[in-house]
């Protein structure tokens, strides 16, 4: 019989509370990152398993939300590196994002979201974390393990790219 080691129980960790507190935002972020609801659900589950296993090593250097988001981002990145992901038609996934999924804010159309998803990963992740997860630049900096100034620059550049792509659609021609 194979025995699976179980991490030491820590009374300070209430996994049910973490799931209810962060589950929806993790699912939303994972969905926007992976563009597939089933993969996003798996990623959230894997995230909470890693949180449970790694909690004894959590030093408290960052806020708990930031630490959990960092784990979720790494899980999503690992999913995207898998051989399965390389066979998925990403553009087809972009066009099939369900508006009724309730995971993304109500938009009159999905043009903005599609353009965000077409950004390079370094710009996309800061936009998603800043606007969709309401994280500060400091929290994003900690979650992505990059300097805060880099986060600000990436946000600025991502906004500029979106402004160019959406000119005449969301932005007036004068701006």
Task: Describe the model.
- The chain has helices at residues 15-34, 37-54, 64-81, 83-86, 90-95, 111-118, 121-132, 137-144, 148-165.
- It has 175 residues and is an all-alpha fold.
- Helix 1 packs across helix 2 (37-54).
In short:
The chain is mostly helical. It has helices spanning 15-34, 37-54, 64-81, 83-86, 90-95, 111-118, 121-132, 137-144, 148-165.
Q: Portion of residues in helices?
A: 55-70%
Distance between the termini: 68 Å
Sheet/helix structural class: mainly alpha
Number of strands: 0
Q: On the 0-100 scale, what is the average pLDDT?
A: 77
The total of helices stands at: 9
In sequence order, what are the helices and strands, one letter per element? HHHHHHHHH
Q: Main β-sheet: number of strands, strand sense, barrel status? A: none
Would you identify the regions where 5 or more consecutive residues have pLDDT less than 50?
Answer: 3-11, 97-107
Give the oligomeric state.
Answer: single chain
Backbone shape: globular
What portion of the residues fall into strands of 2 or more residues?
A: under 5%
Rg estimate, integer Å: 18 Å
Which descriptors would you attach to this protein?
175 residues; 0% strand
Could you outline the blueprint of secondary structure elements for this entry?
Blueprint (H helix, E strand, L loop, with lengths): L14 H20 L2 H18 L9 H18 L1 H4 L3 H6 L15 H8 L2 H12 L4 H8 L3 H18 L10
């Amino acid at each position: 019989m194979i025995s699976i080691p179980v991490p030491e129980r820590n009374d300070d960790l209430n996994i049910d509370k973490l799931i209810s507190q962060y589950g929806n935002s993790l699912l939303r972020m994972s969905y926007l990152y992976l563009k597939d609801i089933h993969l996003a659900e798996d990623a959230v589950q894997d995230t909470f398993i890693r949180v449970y296993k790694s909690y004894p090593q959590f030093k408290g250097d960052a806020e708990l939300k930031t630490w959990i988001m960092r784990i979720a981002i790494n899980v999503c990145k690992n999913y995207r590196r898998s051989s399965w992901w390389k066979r998925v038609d990403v553009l087809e996934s972009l066009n099939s994002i369900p508006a009724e999924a309730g995971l993304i804010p109500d938009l009159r159309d999905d043009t903005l979201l599609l353009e965000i998803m077409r950004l390079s990963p370094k710009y996309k992740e800061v936009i998603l974390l800043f606007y969709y997860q309401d994280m500060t630049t400091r929290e994003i900096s900690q979650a992505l393990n990059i300097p805060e100034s880099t986060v600000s620059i990436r946000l600025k550049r991502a906004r500029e790219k979106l402004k160019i792509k959406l000119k005449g659609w969301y932005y007036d021609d004068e701006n």
